[in-house]
């Protein structure tokens, strides 16, 4: 059992269990973390934010923030308006207040949403940007840097050797590294200017890590040709190393630790990080958690002319061979040029943001909302995996708002000029407009040039074909999307579409604010349909030139760009969006010049269900086999590509994916990723991890058992049902009344049973061991034509049903040779004789087992007469029996058929729905909650919330993601408020027939639908408060455990292994005699491998009959739960569990006075110093109860 899944006791109890906290699983992590996702520190709930020159972090408890925000919700304000006893009534709102509420509704989504935003914004900004120790340190640092001595020009390698004499210091020279024949020099002079830039100086900072450097102007050290071959980056690296040497010297008395850090893992973006040492000195700025970043930059007066950095120019000279006389390759270097242009941008960005902030009142708030939204989805920095190339993307969000406010430049005949929105919108309107732009704009085909007063430095034509996407800001004239793969942009578009759906009200919880701003959406398992972890440490790409490596700044950068391009070509229309994710860059010691490349990256896929699982990828036709497209197709797929003829007569290049079943089709996208990695990057299968197969194994029966089955599968069960229905409807002449319909109500016929339905021929029962003889009964409802000859007595109706079923059994046995039918009277404890309790069990010649019950609508009328009779007409016992019988009638004959057809329709509508329900049922069963505490129908309705209750962009397309989404819903759902699920669409629900079926409900879950506005049909008795707390704690622990995906290590099987430490008692059963043991999560094959001392010995009762639906352990637990309802609660895995646990009712755990006919077995309490009446106390006789439990389970309990 993984250590992440532990138990803890939940708070609260029901009416009978008030004092004892039931055992629940603990969280896998000690804290939920930051509700904003702004700082990744686990457990401390601190949010870090930039202060312009560094990383500002202010301690802020996440729970406090959520409490502050949510107290402004309509529910809380409504309750606040209710006058308390003795208080004065409040005055109605004034005209000004009404106008203010109207304005809030017009400028924001609602007045409540505006109040939530107003509460959020102060909590995501630095509370004390003017910190005295920080200010004192800045003055000291400024004075110290301004007094540094100069270093004369020297060869770059000589300079590196000289600095290497300093312990633990190296120069972060990027590629191409300097050589001995370099004819240029490096030098150092004190900074010409030191400027604080970024969001802090403009007062637009939020509590998160941002690329906000403290810029030092080093323009005087460069020459006009330093833009060539990385010379600028080499000189800047030397300059940083010299500063690092001085500031880390104890004689500087700055008391800071210095580190290198490279954004996006690009050595060309290396900066110097300063963090304080905690010594309580006057300049100790540890308390605000500030981090100072120093980046050498260029002023407009630099000798390097920006016109030399056009996207069409090539500034990297790459020799084509090693010979001295060879020519150089000089293709355009747009990415290299864009990175160098960043050295000119800091001051321009500061002025631009300041102008926007002054001209647009809502700009600051809008920018804060966008940054919080982006960081919650991994478009920024933190300690968790982030979207590729969005690290340090602060200027990008500024540019998006700038585009909305000012519009863009018009060029060409096809470009449509974007009209500016002006500066009078609210922050929410700007935020929503930004999402609308991101969700709709085609970044691959439509370049964006933000409107600039002085025009752009380079014409639009020079950007064409040089970048995957183009977005040129007005201030810096830089393509802020340079180096960002198109796949990351498509993922951003997808997230924007999802957020717009939430804003439009498509969320199961009904709280869009929490979903958008407070919920962390960086969880891989609930965000992506498929997550593939790739170890690139052994990657050897086939087509990666030295020019590409230099263009991207490093081998890992070029590798990821090539991987993104290849996967995009291969996956095509199978995905709506996909992206690469990798760990964020981390500060490194000064002794490490270059950043360490991320070994593991993740490929996150969001599938298009219409195309994701197709078996064939079509390429160019036979007439195009000699074209460039055909060559590219064959080069992409290698030996998988072949020329094939199709049924329509066409001949085309194609790739065929061979799978064995429907589960295999869900693996096709993963197979494509694996093939591309192997063919183009040399990454073998053991370096690629996907957890789909491990989840599939949880829903499969052991192969040693299934080999004995005659048939299995949902389609086979449906065909058997159709065949039986046809046979029954053909018996009109043999029955007194004609059969109108046969309605299925079993999960086996709606694709939601945990295991696929199976058929076992009675002739092979003797070959199966006892622990694998369970065959499920598929429940059906039989409806006859209406007749006035039915009796008006409830007991007589049950006898009439018995006669009908007997006649039907005889007719079927006569019409279908080999069919077996028998009458079963089902009267479990608590079910009255007036309730429906007769069914016909049928075993078809093919081995399928069905259970038929007769629906007679007159029963409900007779039961209503009893329930609505005048007081005193019936005894309390009769009324209780009638209430129970009516509830069973409504559930079985009214609600169950409608529920069945709706759930079956959801399976056909959403490809992952059925698999999600099966996994959730398996999870709850494995943790001993299914059936005894949570019904299967309630699980199906709950799972529908993450499919029918959300917009199309958020629907899971694989059962693994669906499972993770349901787990997340169970973790976050406040079940005391209930949940509304649009399960039945726009159908007319008609009258509420369910309301009278749920008086005195004990269950705490409320799952409302159109036809069940009370939400109690499937949760009337369960789960109670104890089980509900268990479910929530299990969901929290499982959610935390699923985060192991980010470390590349996840034991899926461990999620379904249940710990037993905190039960008051655990009873073990004999697995060899349990018919369902072969379904156990931790099944032991040795149980059925041998019988006695001989492996080939036949079972002792090999000639026993086939008993469909027979599970002695299930009946045993039902009896225990009924008999000891006031003594203990029992927990059991109905899917082959070989043990069960119990907890004593805490209300009877303490000594209490003796009473006649007490509700529990008791013994005298131990004698103490009590006097008088206190001496006649009794306590629970635990030993006697356990002995009785063992006695009742004789033959089942393992002694």
Write the layout of secondary structure elements.
Blueprint: E1 6-9, E2 23-26, E3 46-50, E4 55-59, H1 62-70, H2 74-81, H3 95-107, H4 111-120, H5 132-146, E5 151-154, H6 156-164, E6 186-188, E7 193-196, E8 214-217, H7 231-247, E9 256-262, E10 270-276, E11 292-297, E12 318-319, E13 328-329, H8 334-341, H9 345-359, H10 363-375, E14 386-387, H11 394-406, H12 427-440, E15 448-449, E16 471-472, H13 486-503, H14 512-518, H15 524-527, E17 530-535, H16 546-552, H17 555-571, E18 575-582, E19 600-607, E20 616-621, H18 628-637, E21 641-645, E22 651-656, H19 662-665, H20 668-681, E23 688-689, H21 692-697, H22 703-706, E24 711-712, H23 714-729, E25 739-744, E26 758-759, E27 778-784, H24 794-815, E28 820-825, E29 838-843, E30 849-855, H25 858-867, H26 876-909, H27 913-926, H28 936-944, H29 959-972, E31 979-980, E32 1007-1008, H30 1025-1042, H31 1052-1055, E33 1065-1068, H32 1086-1089, H33 1112-1123, E34 1128-1132, E35 1139-1144, E36 1152-1153, E37 1162-1164, E38 1177-1180, H34 1182-1192
Parallel strand pairs: 8-11, 15-16, 27-30, 31-32
Antiparallel strand pairs: 1-2, 3-4, 5-6, 7-8, 9-10, 10-11, 12-13, 14-18, 17-19, 17-23, 18-19, 20-22, 21-22, 24-26, 25-27, 28-29, 29-30, 33-35, 34-35, 36-38, 37-38
Instruction: Report the strand count.
Output: 38
Please, what is the average pLDDT? Answer: 83
Give the CA-based shape. elongated
Q: Enumerate the strands of the largest sheet in spatial order, edge to edge or round the barrel.
A: 7-8-11-10-9
Structural class: alpha+beta
Rounded radius of gyration (Å): 36 Å
| Helix share bin | 25-40%
Q: Approximately how much beta-strand content do the residues carry?
A: 5-15%
Number of helices: 34
Could you list the spans in which at least 5 consecutive residues all have pLDDT below 50? 1-87, 1091-1103
């Amino acid at each position: 059992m993984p250590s992440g899944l532990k138990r803890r006791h939940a708070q609260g109890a029901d009416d009978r269990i008030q004092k004892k906290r039931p055992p629940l699983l603990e969280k896998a992590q000690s804290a939920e973390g930051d509700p904003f996702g702004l700082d990744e520190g686990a457990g401390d709930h601190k949010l870090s934010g930039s202060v312009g020159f560094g990383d500002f972090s202010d301690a802020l408890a996440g729970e406090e923030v959520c409490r502050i925000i949510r107290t402004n919700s309509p529910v809380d304000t409504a309750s606040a308006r209710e006058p308390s006893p003795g208080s004065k009534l409040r005055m109605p709102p004034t005209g000004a207040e009404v106008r203010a509420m109207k304005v809030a509704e017009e400028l924001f989504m609602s007045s409540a949403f505006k109040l939530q935003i107003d509460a959020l914004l102060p909590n995501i900004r630095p509370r004390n940007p003017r910190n005295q120790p920080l200010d004192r340190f800045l003055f000291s640092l400024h004075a110290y840097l301004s007094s540094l001595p100069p270093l004369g020009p020297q060869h770059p390698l000589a300079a590196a050797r000289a600095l290497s004499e300093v312990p633990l210091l190296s120069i972060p020279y990027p590629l191409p590294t300097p050589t001995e024949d370099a004819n240029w020099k490096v030098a150092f002079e004190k900074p010409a200017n030191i400027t604080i830039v970024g969001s802090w100086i403009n007062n637009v900072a939020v509590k998160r890590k941002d690329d906000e450097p403290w810029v030092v102007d080093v323009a005087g050290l460069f020459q006009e040709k330093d833009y060539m071959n990385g010379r600028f980056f080499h000189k800047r690296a030397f300059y940083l190393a010299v500063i690092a040497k001085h500031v880390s010297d104890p004689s500087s008395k700055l008391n800071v630790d210095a580190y290198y850090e490279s954004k996006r893992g690009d050595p060309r973006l290396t900066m110097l990080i300063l963090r304080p040492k905690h010594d309580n000195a006057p300049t100790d700025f540890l308390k605000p958690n500030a981090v100072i970043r120093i980046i050498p930059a260029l002023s407009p007066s630099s000798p390097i002319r920006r016109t030399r950095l056009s996207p069409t120019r090539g500034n990297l000279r790459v020799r084509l061979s090693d010979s001295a006389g060879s020519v150089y390759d000089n293709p355009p270097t747009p990415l290299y040029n864009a990175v160098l242009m960043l050295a000119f941008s800091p001051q321009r960005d500061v002025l631009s943001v300041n102008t926007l902030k002054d001209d647009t009142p809502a700009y600051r708030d809008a920018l804060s909302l966008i940054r919080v939204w982006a960081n919650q989805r991994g478009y920024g920095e933190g300690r968790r995996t982030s979207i590729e190339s969005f690290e340090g993307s602060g200027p990008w969000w500024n540019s998006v708002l700038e585009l909305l406010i000012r519009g863009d430049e018009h060029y060409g005949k096809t470009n449509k000029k974007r009209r500016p929105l002006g500066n009078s919108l609210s922050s929410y309107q700007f935020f929503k407009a930004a999402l609308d732009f991101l969700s709709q704009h085609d970044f691959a085909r439509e370049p964006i040039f933000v409107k600039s007063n002085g025009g752009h430095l380079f014409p639009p034509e020079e950007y064409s074909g040089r970048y995957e996407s183009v977005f040129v800001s007005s201030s810096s004239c830089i393509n802020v999307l340079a180096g960002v793969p198109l796949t990351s942009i498509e993922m951003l578009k997808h997230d924007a579409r999802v957020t717009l759906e939430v804003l439009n009200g498509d969320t199961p919880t009904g709280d869009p604010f929490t979903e958008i701003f407070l919920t962390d959406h960086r969880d891989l398992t609930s965000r992506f349909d498929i997550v593939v972890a790739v170890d690139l440490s052994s990657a050897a790409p086939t087509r990666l030139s030295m020019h590409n490596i230099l263009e991207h700044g490093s081998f890992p950068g070029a590798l990821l760009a090539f991987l993104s391009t290849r996967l995009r070509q291969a996956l095509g229309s199978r995905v709506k969006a996909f992206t690469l994710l990798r760990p964020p860059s981390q500060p490194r010691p000064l002794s490490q010049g270059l950043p360490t490349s991320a070994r593991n990256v993740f490929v996150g896929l969001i599938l298009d269900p219409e195309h994701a699982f197709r078996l064939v990828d079509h390429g160019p036709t036979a007439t195009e086999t000699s074209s460039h497209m055909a060559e590219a197709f064959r080069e992409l797929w290698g030996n998988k590509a072949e020329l094939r003829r199709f049924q329509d007569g066409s001949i085309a290049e194609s790739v065929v994916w061979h799978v064995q079943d429907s589960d295999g089709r869900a693996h096709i996208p993963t197979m494509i990723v694996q093939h591309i990695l192997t063919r183009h990057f040399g990454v073998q299968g053991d370096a690629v991890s996907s957890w789909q197969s491990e989840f599939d194994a949880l829903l499969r029966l052991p192969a040693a058992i299934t080999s004995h089955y005659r048939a299995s599968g949902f389609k086979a069960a449906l065909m058997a049902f159709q065949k039986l229905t046809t046979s029954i409807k053909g018996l009109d002449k043999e029955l007194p009344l004609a059969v109108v319909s046969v309605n299925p109500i079993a999960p086996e016929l709606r694709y939601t049973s945990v295991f696929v339905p199976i058929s076992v021929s009675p002739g092979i029962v003797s070959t199966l061991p006892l622990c694998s003889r369970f065959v499920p009964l598929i429940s059906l409802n039989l409806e006859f034509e209406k007749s006035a000859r039915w009796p008006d007595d409830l007991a007589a109706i049950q006898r009439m049903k018995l006669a009908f079923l007997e006649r039907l059994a005889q007719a079927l046995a006569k019409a279908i040779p080999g069919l077996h039918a028998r009458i079963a009277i089902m009267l479990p404890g608590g079910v009255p004789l007036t309730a429906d309790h007769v069914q016909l069990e049928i075993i078809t010649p093919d081995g399928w087992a069905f259970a038929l019950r007769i629906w007679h609508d007159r029963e409900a009328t007779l039961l209503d007469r009893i329930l609505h009779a005048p007081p005193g007409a019936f005894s309390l016992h009769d009324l209780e029996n009638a209430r129970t019988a009516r509830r069973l009638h409504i559930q079985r004959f009214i609600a169950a058929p409608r529920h069945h057809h709706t759930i079956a329709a959801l399976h056909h509508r959403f490809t992952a729905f059925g698999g999600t329900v099966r996994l959730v049922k398996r999870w709850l069963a494995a943790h001993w909650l299914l059936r005894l505490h949570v019904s299967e129908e309630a699980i199906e309705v709950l799972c529908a919330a993450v499919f029918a209750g959300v917009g199309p962009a958020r629907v899971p397309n694989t059962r693994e993601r669906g499972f993770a989404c349901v787990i997340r819903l169970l973790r976050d759902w406040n079940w005391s408020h209930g949940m509304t699920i649009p399960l039945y669409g726009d159908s007319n629900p008609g009258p509420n027939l369910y309301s009278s079926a749920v008086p005195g409900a004990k269950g705490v879950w409320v799952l409302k639908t159109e036809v069940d506005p009370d939400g109690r049909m499937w949760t009337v008795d369960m789960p109670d408060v104890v089980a509900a707390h268990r479910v929530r704690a299990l969901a929290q622990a499982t959610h935390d455990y699923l985060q192991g995906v980010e470390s590349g290590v996840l034991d899926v099987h461990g999620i379904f292994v249940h710990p037993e430490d905190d039960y008051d008692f655990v009873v073990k059963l004999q697995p060899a005699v349990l018919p369902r043991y072969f379904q156990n999560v931790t099944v032991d094959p040795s149980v059925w491998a041998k019988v006695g001392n001989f492996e080939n010995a036949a079972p002792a009762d090999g000639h026993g009959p086939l008993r469909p639906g027979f599970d002695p352990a299930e009946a045993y637990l039902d009896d225990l739960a009924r008999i000891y309802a006031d003594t203990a609660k029992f927990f059991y895995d109905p899917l082959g569990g070989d043990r069960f646990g119990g907890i004593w009712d805490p209300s009877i755990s303490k000594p209490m006075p003796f009473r006649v006919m007490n509700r529990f077995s008791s013994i005298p309490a131990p004698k103490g110093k009590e006097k008088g009446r206190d001496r006649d106390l009794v306590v629970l006789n635990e030993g006697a109860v356990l002995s009785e439990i063992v006695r009742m389970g004789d033959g089942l309990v393992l002694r």
